[in-house]
Amino acid sequence: MRIDIITIFPDMFSAVLDESIVKRGQQKGRVKIFVHDLRRYSLDKHHKVDDRPFGGGSGMLLQAEPIFRAVEAVKKKIKGMARVILLCPQGKSFNQAYAKKLSKCGNLIFICGHYEGVDERVRQYLADEEISIGDYVLTGGELPAMVLVDSIVRLIPGVLGDKNSLNFESFEGNLLEYPQYSRPAKFRKWPVPDVLVSGAHNKISAWRKSEALKRTRQRRPDLLKK
Ligand SMILES: C[S@@+](CC[C@H](N)C(=O)[O-])C[C@H]1O[C@@H](n2cnc3c(N)ncnc32)[C@H](O)[C@@H]1O
How many whole angstroms from 9 Cα to the centroid of ligand 1? Predict the structure, then answer.
């Protein structure tokens, strides 16, 4: 898989791309990630990429021209089709099922908005879809792009060491994960549930299923309706 990110703050990305699972995914050759500085695609001699909105109003908008030029340049480098995603608080809500769907794509291009957002023509004529990471407004699309990258990359086959860990995670089968404990078996006055130290695998598996159901019913009954 290949992911291209278009942003006016390319330096923000190293914290996520150069650490942990996302780094390992790249080292294993499962994903290639490129971060592009939008200013490089500006036709302005000062590399300006924003301007005031027509009709007035506060703030600045990222202009269509450099964004179109950046996406077109990236598409030329890519073999095959690429899905162009605009990070946007007005987009479709992101979730685990969405991450799974995107993890099966060959090429993704993320456009990070900033300031008051992007010129509407980017949304209308360039983006294939718009994705929101939640009902709140962030300063830019950089953090949302990182959220998408992290959640997608760990789902690419071969990235996680133990692929079984994906089968027993929250949202898999519309359930939240069961409670987990590690050593010591008794911490302060709180012991681990007996069943987990019993060594009886059938009982442990039944306990986990029932705890996952209980937890989902308590915290996210909406998932069970699915
Ligand atoms: C300050 S926001 C612009 C908000 C816009 N004026 C509005 O009211 O819908 C700047 C940029 O941050 C990104 N952004 C902010 N919140 C986001 C969210 N919840 N999900 C995805 N992207 C978001 C988008 O790329 C957006 O263009």
Answer: 15
Measured in whole angstroms, the distance separating CA 173 from the mean position of its chain's CA atoms is: 20
Q: Residue 158: which region, alpha, beta or left (left: phi > 0; alpha: psi -120 to 50)?
A: left
Locate the ligand 1 atom nearest the alpha carbon of residue 134 and give its number.
19
| Cβ–Cβ under 8 Å, residues 159 and 30 | yes
Euclidean distance between CA atoms 198 and 174, whole angstroms = 28
Residue nearest to atom 19 of ligand 1 (CA): 89
- The amino acid at residue 17 is L
The atom number, within ligand 1, closest to the CA of 118 reads 27
CA of 189 to the centre of ligand 1 (A): 46
What does the pLDDT look like over 4-58, one tens digit per residue? 999 999 999 999 999 999 999 999 999 999 999 999 999 999 999 999 999 999 9
What confidence tens digit (pLDDT) does each residue in 131-142 have?
Answer: 999 999 999 999
Q: How many helices (H) and strands (E) does the chain have?
A: 8, 9
Q: Which residue ranges form the domains of the chain, and what is each CATH number?
A: 2-153 (3.40.1280.10), 168-225 (1.10.1270.20)
